[in-house]
Write a structure and sequence with these properties.
By secondary structure, the protein is of the alpha+beta class. Helix content is 20%, strand content 27%. Strands 2, 3, 4, 11, 12, 13, 14 and 15 form an eight-stranded mixed β-sheet that branches. Strands 7-8-10-9 form a four-stranded antiparallel β-sheet, covered by helices on one side. Strands 1-16 form a two-stranded antiparallel sheet.
Length: 345
């Protein structure tokens, strides 16, 4: 038996303006922000590693074959301008964008997509996530320089969604060939709006604007119009340190603030809080229904009904979350485990 006792909340606090860093030997200034990441992944290679944190910086380094519009959730062109799916769901054909080049000036084409697929599916590389996101993928067929077909062993409806995620971002074949599987995470090359500059584990990762970027999806345009020249990602694994970094202007964007810190920061006019609901399972604990005393349904019900949910939401979560009463939730739309809600807190 599962009892829901809380939730997972992420909040970002954003200061009003980017910092300015003078450039050596130039009269121009570099518009820079520091973004605080909340954990240090064991690796930063999107094809190999599985951390969701790596997607925050690398989403801007890599383009994907397709994108999902953040507002409509519809699939829209990325490095592929169009695609078709065979009636049996076993073949996906992608028409690829011309005149795209990687940050190292390697041209993007069907062969580049093939190299990335080979890398992801190579069992020696032990992909932790990207490989599994391809589902029943069984191989590819290069039709011409700008057309490629992906073949599946059986229909796999999540494939388009998978291809829109950074784990299946397209890397430069030349860069992949120039470095080992272990070292590529320090020398990443994509086609995205930002170039990978450097990565020092435990300290920072830096990306810088790609001035040649003209092929992004439509919803990128407004975002890029006033985007900073450089973004430095630093690691703040200790939750109390995150609010201090914001208050001291050490970081301008940071996630996963402690609710009590977020409440204190809400009084600061220079900091904006953006509470974000995270779909999935909330914080929870499990009752062993086969052992005393929780093998007794009356005991379990007493624990459920005796929990003061409103007090928990007030004191622990500072009212940044309305509460959860079911097995999973998306935003504040609660899904209950049973229609009579008897197993829901």
């Amino acid at each position: 038996m599962i009892v829901r006792v809380g939730f997972f909340i992420i909040a970002a606090a954003v200061l009003a303006a980017c910092g300015s860093v003078p450039q050596t030997g130039s009269q121009t200034t570099l518009r820079q922000i520091v973004y605080g990441l909340t954990l240090q992944p064991t690796g930063f290679d999107p094809h190999i590693n599985a951390s969701s944190e790596l997607g925050i910086p690398l989403r801007s380094v890599y383009d994907t074959l397709i994108y999902r519009d953040p507002q409509t959730k519809a699939f829209v062109p990325g490095l592929a301008t169009s695609w078709t799916i065979s009636p049996d769901g076993l073949t996906y054909e992608f028409s690829l964008r011309n005149n795209v080049h990687f940050h190292d000036n390697t041209p993007f084409n069907a062969q580049a997509v093939a190299v990335n697929l080979d890398r992801i599916t190579n069992p020696d590389n032990a992909s932790q996530k990207a490989f599994f996101m391809l589902g029943s993928y069984s191989g590819y067929e290069i039709v011409n320089d700008y057309t490629i077909r992906l073949h599946l062993a059986e229909p796999y409806s999540p494939l388009l969604d998978s291809l829109s995620q950074v784990y299946l971002g397209i890397a430069s074949p030349a860069a992949l060939a120039a470095t080992s599987i272990e070292r590529y995470q320090f020398h990443q090359v994509g086609t995205g709006p930002y170039r990978f500059t450097d990565y020092l584990p435990g300290d920072h990762l830096t990306i810088a604007r790609n001035p040649d970027y003209t092929w992004g999806p439509d919803f990128y345009q407004d975002a890029l119009a006033n985007a900073p020249d450089e973004i430095v990602f630093r690691f703040y694994e200790d939750p109390p340190a995150r609010a201090l970094a914001l208050q001291g202007n050490e970081a301008q964007v940071i996630g996963e603030l402690l609710p009590a810190d977020a409440r204190d920061l809400s009084a600061d006019a220079d900091i904006g809080l953006l509470p974000v609901s995270i779909p999935g399972q909330p914080l929870q604990f499990f009752m062993n229904t086969n052992r005393f005393p929780t093998d007794d349904e009356r005991i379990r019900q007493a624990l459920l009904y005796g929990a003061n949910r409103e007090a928990i939401i007030d004191s622990v979560y500072q009212r940044f979350f309305a509460g959860c009463v079911g097995a999973t939730f998306s935003g504040n739309r609660i899904l209950c485990a049973r229609s009579d809600r008897s197993l829901c807190l």
